[in-house]
Amino acid sequence: MAKPPLSREDYLDLYGPTLHYTPPGGFRTVDDYDDLVDTHCCFCGQQCGIKLKVKDNAVVGFEPRYEFPFNRGKLCPKGIKRYLQGSHPDRLLHPMRRTPTGYERITWDEALSETVAKIQEIQAKYGKDSFAMLSGVSLTNEKSYLVGKFARLALQTANLDYNGRLCMVSAGAGNKKAYGIDRSSNHWEDITQAKVIFIIGTNIAECFPITTDYIWRARDNGAKIIYADPRMVPMARTADLFLPLRVGSDSALLMAMLHVLIRDRLIDEEFIRNHTVGFEETADAVSNATPEWAAEITGIPAEKIELAARWYGEAETGMILHARGLEHQTKGVDNVVSCANLALATGKIGKPGCGHSTITGQGNGQGGREHGHKCDQLPGNRDITNPEHRKYIAEVWGCPEEEIPGKGLTAQEILNAIHAGEIKGLLSLCFNPLVSLPDANFNREALDKLEHYTVIDFFLSETAQHADIVLPGSLHEEDEGTSTSGEGRVIKINAPVTPPGEARRDWEIMLDIANRLGRGKYFQYTSTREIFEELRLASRGGTADYSGITWDKVVNTMGVFWPAPQVTERGKTTMNIAELDSLHPGTPRLYEGGKFYHADGKARFNAVKWRESGEVVDEEYPIWFTTGRVVSQYLSGTQTRRIGPLVDQFPHPRLEIHPRMAKQLGIATDDWVTVQTRRGEVIIQANVVNTIRPDTVFMAYHWGGKESANLLTQRALDPVSKIPEFKVSACRVRLATPEEQAEGERVKAASARTEKNLPAGYGLNARRQELRR
Amino acid sequence: MSDLRFFIDPIRCIGCKACMQACSECATHRGKSMIHLEHIERGTSTQTAPMVCMHCDLPTCAAVCPADAIKRTEDGIVQSSQAPRCIGCSNCVNACPFGVPRYYPEIDQMLKCDMCYDRTSIGQKPMCASVCPSEALFYGTLEEFQARRKGTPKNTFQFGAQTITTKVFIVLPEGEIGLDMDVISHMDARFEPDAFDHLDPFAHLEPLPQAQGGLL
Q: How are strands ordered across the β-sheet holding A224-228?
């Protein structure tokens, strides 16, 4: 039974989050390090280059990596302080088994034996698919690939999914529908050449800070910025045209813009004729989508919608950028294809300064969705239901095709199935669904119902506290491999240090489990480089083709953009990795010359019919509720809520509320308020700001427990991408009662400890010995 | 003297504090940030502004120091107080027209930005300008700046009767030639002439329906 035996406060005492401020050995008065290692940031999809200072097998600081072309030394606060997660007092250092009073230290042999015995017991009793696996896309490409193979061939379950399901899957599905391939259409340098940049549903300054530099470089070249968002986020503040759209109304705005483009003949008829399919049907679908119609839905004045369409249509070059604001919806795929419709109608794609890109939120959000740890995909972005694709991968893996399970459940569906008692066991790797999935109370109930849960992670996250067996895995800087950035650039992650204590590299742990499950014959690797070599072969001929990419080439050229198919031996059906050449230069810009990735080489228009979100405001819940990020925190906060200087920047979530709504409700800044939806309630302090729509409140989602925004969000899914509706809920807000305020203050006070204030039983000194490696 | 200059362009500032976090990594001040970020007013804007030492040609802080603890290098960098000389009187803190120096009681000494002298003196960029994601902080030559950036860099400032020229430039919006301005309005300046129409972009939206004592 996976219900945690301890209170949240007890876990805080034992496993943090502890606010860690100083590098190993303290701050040094002179620069004192043994080595400076080129690698990349472990956080968002920009994957900035960074140099890590290493001393005594510990990361002690950073230096800018000016020569890496994407960020040229630039970093956000998370990248600068990332090194503090190494040698952290909360770090998991040895395997543990849950006891009625917490966790006890056990040997690796005991931990692995018990995990494998439980997997076998549950699968014998309830069937193979009753044991599920969840993984994260902070993993390298090699680990993502291995997880996909491990779940299918070692665990032999169909029920594998990844936390990219909470991130870019709507963009992935929309891109595939429109263009036949799932990747940003261009490298980021194209942004600097654009004459108009249309940004919708993304807080670029706080979520992808280095991208702001590309936008400013475009502005220095004369570009205009159109920014659509319910909040006036920092980049929107400086936009040439700001469109304050209501949450969930994105596709109405986009349809009306297409309406204006067609009405005013601002379309590229030749491009449409030669390179696309389905324009007429899409044009019909927007024939009544006038700016006046969209103004009613979006709350944006009609003349501003006209202006946005004209600016985008008339500009010589143009770029569309979006992220979770547009994708985290039950209409995520509709919204993405609506953006694609604009790019295709104006021919602003496949050319310098033109493109349509999603901004990947998670570190390896791009690469992680290409190599087969999605429930519906095999490596190379292959379709798990396609017999030819299955046959090829079976050949690479050396297994009978029927050993590869079929399509499984998606991440939220796995939690739903656990709640329904259909899935009994779980193995997870770097995934914290209790904070990152919607409707946290429901998910907590689900985790409590598991018969067995083994977690591989490096900190004991909120979700990991439900585990029966904890296996200490590896941090980003403790293993090497590749990652693929948001612009599609495959880059090399290096490992300056080895895991501390008894912690091990994640891939080695998976290999051990596979061996003990009697499936070791499929997992004969001695290094991650060997895993990459097999990945090259497995991706060959798929849309995400890495076969022409080698680690050496990635290092020598500062990254290679996929697809990079094997060049000289194209078409040869070799299964010998050594025969794969690597002469392809990579593909920074897709679709050049109007060539798309559908079988006929043409892009697809997709007609969209306007529909409302899964939940809309009503008399009972009259206020729109939306969520997002802050710059100093990353995703579910498992890492960043432990780094003191980052927590100090933004220690607790705040409810952003417009002064007009605040006045109506009698709320001032710092007041404690209670936010309620049909799923749950949160007690939180208000921040009265006039940078948000007066009908909408906002809360950042990085926190767990009673500070979790996802107590309020809903499990409604996009029908195609199965992404949950994080960005649109209906809520009510009122001043907290004195009792609620006291509870809020208690939760706030008990959210973290500082190193100076650790309880005696914490054993920090003993841990420090092990952290010294 | 080096022809490398430091530019601050507050319009570009996204308030991320990468500058402060990077500054605090400097070996010479051990976990303390010598750059400050001003929040203009979060209630009304997301505007923020980073502030480093302006490195005045005739530094007021040094002029008022009774212990002669503040030195300016030959290449125009005004240093933090020298530890053996500083008497912790805070004259410099009070006198600086830009509000830069800070007194640290735990060491009884004034510290401030020295433009990463350990780095800039050997040809490297200061840490804050190296990492700044949006180049609100920029370190390079004036020619380099002008070749690729809009805006007008200014390094002469008037405080009452006192005229101060600095090594650090503040970037004003294109075409601006003086400092006789409403600072907050300038930070909201856009490239479009009618850009100010979104100072309250939500003005047109109807208030929420209201019943007795609260929202419906």
A: A241-243, A224-228, A196-200, A318-322, A355-358
Which one of B134, B198, B202 has the shortest CB-CB distance to A694?
B202
pLDDT higher at A29 or B85: B85
CA A111, A112, A117, A123 dihedral sign is positive
Whether A182 has a pLDDT exceeding 70, the answer reads: yes
Q: B183 pLDDT exceeds 60?
A: no
Q: How far is CA B144 from the centre of its chain?
A: 20
Q: Which value does ipTM take for this structure?
A: 0.94
Distance CA B117, CA B110 (A): 16
* CA dihedral sign, ordered B184, B188, B190, B195: negative
Residue B182 binned pLDDT confidence (cut-offs 50, 70, 90)? very low
What is d(CA A52, CA A48) in angstroms, rounded to the nearest whole number? 12
Q: Which residues of A386-417 are buried (b: 16+ CB within 10 A; e: fewer)?
A: eeebbebbbebbebeeeebbeebbbbbbbbbb
Q: Is the pLDDT of residue B214 over 90?
A: no
Q: CB of A337 within 8 A of CB of A344?
A: no
Contact B216 A661 (CB under 8 A): no
Tell me how many residue pairs between chain A and chain B have CB atoms under 8 A apart.
Answer: 167
Quick check: B191 contacting A, CB < 8 Å? yes
HSE, CB side, 13 Å, CA atoms: give it for residue A118: 23
Say what the pLDDT of residue B197 is: 45
Q: Read off the pLDDT of each residue in A62-67 and give the average, rounded to a whole number.
A: 97
Between CA A87 and CA A755 the distance in angstroms is 12
Q: How far apart are CA A287 and CA A12, in angstroms?
A: 57
Residue B206 C-alpha, separation from nearest chain A C-alpha, in angstroms: 8
- Alpha-carbon span A291 to A253, nearest angstrom: 8
Q: How far is B42 from chain A (nearest CA, A)?
A: 7
DSSP string, B16-56: --HHHHHHTT-TTTTT----EEEES-TTT---EEEE----B
Alpha helices, H only, A466-573: 506-516, 528-539, 551-556
Confirm or reject contact between B130 and chain A (CB < 8 A): yes
φ, ψ at A51 (rounded to 5°): -110, 135
Convert A20-87 into a string of H (helix), E (strand) and C (coil): ECCCCCCCCCCCCCCEEEEEECCCCCCCCEEEEEEECCEEEEEEECCCCCCCCCCCCHHHHHHHHHCC
| pLDDT confidence bin for A14, thresholds 50/70/90 | confident
Cα-based distances in Å from A451 to A96, A126, A472, A497, A691:
17, 11, 21, 36, 47
Looking at chain A, the number of H-run helices and the number of E-run strands are 27, 30
Cα–Cα distance, A439 to A423 (Å, whole number): 19
pLDDT (tens digit per residue) in A191-242 = 999 999 999 999 999 999 999 999 999 999 999 999 999 999 999 988 999 9
Residue of A30, A212, A621 to mutate, interface with B, max B Cβ within 10 Å? A212
The answer to whether residues B50 and B136 touch, using CB atoms and an 8 Å cutoff, is yes
DSSP 8-state assignment for residue A223: -
Using CB atoms, pick whichever of B16, B130, B135 lies closest to residue A216.
Answer: B135
3-state secondary structure at position A626: strand
